Amino acid sequence: MALKTISLEQEINPWEAQAARFDFAAHKLNLDEGLMKVLRYPTREIILHIPVMMDNGHLEVFTGFRVQHSIARGPAKGGLRYSPDVTLDEVRALASWMTWKCAVVNIPFGGAKGGVICDPHKMSQGELERMTRRYTAELVEFIGPEKDVPAPDMNTNEQTMAWMMDTYSMHMRQTVTAVVTGKPINIGGSRGRREATGRGIMIVCDEAVKKLRLNPESTRVIVQGFGNVGSNAARLMTEAGYKVIGIVEVDGGLVNRNGIDVDALWEFRQRNGTIHGFPGASAEDPAELLVSECEILIPAATENQITSRNADRIKCKILAEGANGPTTATADDILADKRVFVIPDILCNAGGVTTSYFEWVQDRQGYFWKESVVNEQLEHIMKGAFDDVVRFSETHGVNNRIAAYMLAIDRVAYTIRQRGIYA
Ligand code: GLU
Questions:
Q1: pLDDT category, 38, cuts 50, 70, 90?
Q2: pLDDT band at 342 (very low <50, low <70, confident <90, very high)
Q3: pLDDT of residue 377
């Protein structure tokens, strides 16, 4: 069965992108039709209309979602994003990706995702806090350490998680730190969580570089996105000896063939709110930078960055997907023809949720690990998952993405068969 030919509108719909890979992998696995229907759609989709008192005294209502795709392997798990572009289809796709991601790294969680349609950059801290608290209060029966454990995602952070933890705890009349992950360290957060997604990307890139017989010192890296994921990946990879030659942001790109000083760029961005005008690199058109010559390209921004429109111009040898869904299903085929070694999102960015798992374990134990222990455990899991995916791809003659989906679907389906369906 080949991937279907589809319109651009369908191509960039994240739900379609997820479903296309799911269908293909499930057929390859000969998954029975009933289980295929069970796993194709989310278990529960919640739509909320959240009233928020704005600073100017005017009452606004925001639409939010929480989608729980699967709880077969454990509590649902996944981030919460704030963005004007959030849609139910996007949250559905992201929730399914969480199920597959947790299964790829073999941690005992299902998948979920949340989103609120809002522009967080135009809201005050007070407005964001009230919106987060009301969103959490509306979900109080549906989330919890054993039910569904939110975490940060696009435009949410440790502060957002602190508000969620506090709101849930107030309703429970006791402090429940394990209800969310990605919290500040002093209230139950894990050491290493903030950098974890970036660190996980570096670990799988190291493995890919070994596999392709490259070496970090002569490996040029371009990173798209300079948020939590992209900036940490760029910083850690620079420390590990890679040469980060390009940073792509929505409002501009930077290039320095001798390597960008990532720490200096981070400070510059903190001070100026943009990477524009950074003296240590020259400006470059972001779309061009994405298709520039390099060994590793790390899209760590948002969905649909590599599509049928630019995939044939991509020049990297390794595509390490830091974001969720940066590549469309149509672009997959083009990249495969070009023999790009793709480290698919559900493997590549799984370091975040893996360390969220460690945070949840530490909260439930009430015993907190040293950062070196967190990083060591993370490395163990990420390397193991990389090997599993690559081996699966080689034995079954499929690309890495389909291998990751097949591995994940097989693990979830196995659990469902063992548990049996309560129908
Ligand atoms: N939002 C992150 C992701 O997409 C982390 C999720 C989590 O830690 O639960 O993987």
A1: very high
A2: very high
A3: 98
Is this model's pTM higher than 0.90 or not?
yes
Residue identified by tokens 């790294």 is 105
Say how many Å lie between the CA of residue 151 and the centre of ligand 1.
6
SS (H, E, C) 279-321: CCCEEECHHHHHCCCCCEEEECCCCCCECCCCHHHCCCCEEEC
Q: Is 147 among the residues known to form the active site?
A: no
Q: CB–CB of 378/190 below 8 Å?
A: no
Nearest atom in ligand 1 to the alpha carbon of residue 109 is 9
φ and ψ of 149, to 5 deg: -120, 100
pLDDT value, residue 4: 55
What residues flank ligand 1, with Cβ below 6 Å?
77-79, 151, 153, 181-182, 324, 349, 352-353, 356
Instruction: Domain count for the chain, please give it.
Output: 2
Is the residue at 9 inside a domain?
no
d(CA 387, CA 381): 10
Atom of ligand 1 nearest to the CA of 153: 1
CA neighbor of 132 nearest in space, from 50, 228, 47, 55: 50
Of 82, 156, 92, nearest to 118 by C-alpha is 82
Final residue before a domain boundary, out of 158, 186, 214: 186
- CB proximity list for 122: less than 8 A, separation 6 or greater: none
Question: Which one from 4, 77, 101, 113 is the annotated catalytic residue?
Answer: 113
Summarize pLDDT for 75-103 with one digit per residue, the tens.
999 999 999 999 999 999 999 999 999 99
So what's the pLDDT on residue 5? 63
Asked if residue 1 has pLDDT above 50, the reply is no
Cα of 294 vs centre of ligand 1, distance in Å, is: 28
Hey, which of 77, 90, 98 would you mutate to test ligand 1's pocket, going by the most ligand atoms within 8 Å of its Cβ?
98
Q: What is the pLDDT of residue 7?
A: 85
In this structure, the answer to whether residues 179 and 210 fall within a common structural domain is no
Domain final position from 149, 165, 186: 186
Nearest residue (by CA) to ligand 1, atom 10, is 353
What's the mean pLDDT in 119-140? 98
